[in-house]
Amino acid sequence: MAGSDSPPPKIRVLITPEQIQEAVRRLAAEIDRDYAGRTPLLVFIMKGALVFVADLIRELRGDYPLDFMVVSSYGTGTRSGGSVRIVADLKEDIRDRDVLIVEDIIDTGLTLAEVLEHLRVRQPASLEICALLSKPSRRRVEIDARYVGFVIPDAFVVGYGLDYGDRYRGLPYIGVLDP
Ligand code: IMP
Question: Counting beta carbons within 10 angstroms of the beta carbon of residue 92, is it exposed (0 to 12), middle (13 to 18) or buried (19 or more)?
Answer without folding.
Answer: middle
